[in-house]
């Protein structure tokens, strides 16, 4: 028991060290708002508890918002900006059409503006909300270094070019992740976020119908699972139907996603691709045993910290938006 408690104590310390490891350059800090808005995390947590209590299915979408933000221009809240006359913003790019949770971000930001006007960035709000979404879904907690600033530019073209596609194979996904200083382990670990949430039919329907000249369905997809998906997704044009990315557990952050992938029941081609590379396949199969949940939780925390540091604006860069959907 003594050894076990020692390990539990060391994990938060390791995460704290990681959270601060690359931050000298980024100028992010644990406790960044300790003097200017000391209750920032408590305010976000309290509001998130209310939001998720009322709509538990929002945990996945709020986590996804943070992912889609960080992969385009870094974690600068550019995904939250509305389109304007003459500029189509990230949120209106084709890969982002199904994003949800914007009003929840606005709600949390309004609470923070009331408590600490012109202080906490939307980029930090979104990062904290993603962490708390995971915690409220029974996932791990990790320390979030703060001090991000908000970007002033948002481009739908950049979003379409830079977001990891659902049809991606390992070479393509590895290239996209590497461009954000994320490696192959981060790829397979962060794919585990698919334990939360649902997906619209068009994001996976091409695996079910007219896949290729040789196959009507994707041969990497378990045939029984493909039959089940067809009962929900009637055609390539079915835009209304949703499917759980982690069937039976899509509101709970756990390792069952990896068990589905190991059985060739991942929803996306990008999920199936994890079985085509020796390194990612080994990780999937290990976590799928259900014996290493603590390892996955620790790995996910570390990868989220890394992703949360991608391309951040700090110091005098960017701005602190008053409202997350429009520049000041």
In short:
Belongs to the peroxidase family. Classical plant (class III) peroxidase subfamily. Belongs to the peroxidase family. Ascorbate peroxidase subfamily. With 328 residues, the protein is mostly helical.
Topology:
Layout lengths: L1 H20 L1 H4 L13 H15 L4 H12 L31 H14 L6 H15 L19 H7 L7 H9 L5 H7 L7 E3 L22 H10 L9 E3 L11 H7 L6 H5 L4 H11 L4 H15 L21
Antiparallel strand pairs: 1-2
Helix pairs in contact: 1-14, 3-5, 3-6, 4-6, 9-13, 9-14, 11-13
> Unreliable stretches, pLDDT < 50, 5 or more residues?
1-11, 21-25
The gross shape turns out to be globular
> How much strand?
under 5%
Biggest sheet details: 2 strands, antiparallel
Structural class by SSE content: mainly alpha
Describe the fold and architecture.
Heme b binds at residue 194. Its EC number is 1.11.1.7. It catalyses: 2 a phenolic donor + H2O2 = 2 a phenolic radical donor + 2 H2O. The protein is mainly α and 328 residues long. It contains 14 helices and 2 strands; from the N terminus they run αααααααααβαβαααα. It has a two-stranded antiparallel ribbon. Helix 9 crosses helix 14 (293-307). It starts with a helix and ends in a 21-residue tail after the last helix. Residues 1-11 and 21-25 have low confidence and may be disordered.
